[in-house]
Design a protein that fits this description.
There is one protein chain. The protein has helices at about 10-20, 25-45, 70-80, 150, 220-230, 250-260, 275-290, 320-330, and strands at about 90-95, 100, 110-120, 130-140, 160-165, 170-175, 180-185, 190-195, 205-210, 240, 260-265, 295, 315-320. It is of the alpha+beta class. Strands 2-1-3-4-5-6-7-8 form an eight-stranded mixed sheet, sandwiched between helices. Strands 10-9-11-13-12 form a five-stranded mixed sheet, sandwiched between helices. The longest helix is centred in the N-terminal third of the chain and has 21 residues, at about 25-45. The protein binds 1,6-di-O-phosphono-alpha-D-fructofuranose (AFP). 1,6-di-O-phosphono-alpha-D-fructofuranose (AFP) binds near residues 119, 246, 247 and 248.
């Protein structure tokens, strides 16, 4: 008989919290609420090609209800699942300009949730992997209500982070600072079961992931690095293979499991990069570091960046420790081959 234990995400979270004496259970409660939202979003995503949900906001479905775009649906579902649990003092969503307040008639708690409800949305219509990304902080202001100040914390202060991948199956991959663990949804029982315990990213990989269509907008160092990856050299496993989904969750999932490097550098069109520090950079950097990898903006650790605004952008270089270090050397002009 197989000795593998069957562990639901709920039990994993509760056992994780038990390891911290004095924990109130609030953190488990909020992850449980988030898991519910994720199941609802997963259900809608899996129907995306079947039902009339892909229309733009404002169109009506056959019932005469307004049809919401899937990203708006995901944004609202997470808010509605999380606003009344009493665990959060404020939220911020990639879909919303300002912070999202907890309604006055609900209790507030000590945590802050920052989320990208549906990342990679340009892939929805093609039925290609998309995801949800989330980041959790402890509040820094003393009492109700939470404010922008609670959100604008550097990534090293995250108490939890993760992503959901709506792919061939739905997975949650998360960390609370104690390794990275992956759970796969068994749709027949509606439970996420532990499928990838303690994910460790290889020290060096052989895959690079970047939107190479931007090549002519890159710095010389960046161009040189990619040329280096394409060169033939058996001793360093080059040339690397190129893979790019265009959904960060898909590209990061592969990078966590197989190693290599995922990049979205600064370029002449986006001098600060394209990806958002709070919604994409911080949570993915926390996961990659927890899996033993490295996450920088080319010069600085992403988790050390002090955010100035909710939607600020950052270049990202995430992946195997050795690969990201070599990329940094090229970007900083310390090597050219
Ligand atoms: P969308 O949600 O607008 O599709 O953006 C996805 C994303 O933020 C991230 O998931 C991808 O890695 C990256 O942008 C893709 O950007 P490019 O299309 O410029 O390569």
């Amino acid at each position: 008989m197989s000795e593998n234990k069957i562990i639901t995400i709920e039990r994993h979270i509760i056992e994780g919290e038990r390891a911290h004496p004095g924990a109130s259970g609030s953190f488990s409660g909020l992850l449980r609420d988030l898991t519910l939202a994720i199941k609802i979003i997963s259900r809608e995503v899996s129907k995306a090609g079947l039902v009339d949900i892909l229309g733009s906001v404002g169109r009506e479905n056959i019932h005469g209800d307004e049809v919401k775009k899937l990203d708006v649906f995901a944004h609202e579902t997470i808010y509605r699942a999380m606003d009344h649990g009493g665990h959060l003092c404020v939220m911020a969503s990639e879909e919303n300009e300002d912070v999202l307040n907890i309604p006055e008639h609900y209790p507030t708690g000590k945590y802050v949730l920052i989320y990208d409800p549906l990342d990679g949305s340009s892939n929805i219509d093609a039925n290609v992997t998309i995801g949800t990304i989330f980041s959790l902080f402890r509040r820094v202001t003393p009492s109700w209500p939470g404010t922008l100040q609670d959100c604008l914390q550097p990534g090293y202060k995250q108490v939890g982070a993760g992503y959901v991948m709506y792919g061939s199956s739905t997975m949650i991959v998360y960390t609370t600072g104690d390794g990275v663990h992956g759970f796969t949804l068994d749709p027949s029982i509606g439970e996420f079961l532990l499928s990838h315990e303690n994910i460790r990213i290889p020290k060096r990989g052989k895959i690079y992931s970047v939107n190479e269509g931007n090549f002519h907008r890159w710095s010389e160092g960046m161009k040189e690095y990619v040329r280096y990856l394409q060169e033939e050299d058996k001793s360093t496993n080059r040339p690397y293979s190129a893979r790019y989904v265009g959904s960060m969750v898909g590209d990061i999932q592969r990078t966590l499991l197989y190693g290599g490097i995922f990049m979205y550098p600064a370029d002449s069109k986006n001098p600060k990069g394209k990806l958002r520090l709070m919604y994409e950079g911080n949570p993915m950097a926390f996961l990659v570091e927890q899996a033993g990898g490295r996450a920088t903006d080319g010069t600085q650790r992403i988790l050390d960046i002090q955010p100035q605004s909710l939607h600020q952008r950052t270049p990202v270089f995430l992946g195997s420790d050795e690969d990201v270090r070599i990329a940094e050397e090229f970007l900083q002009g310390k090597r050219d081959h």
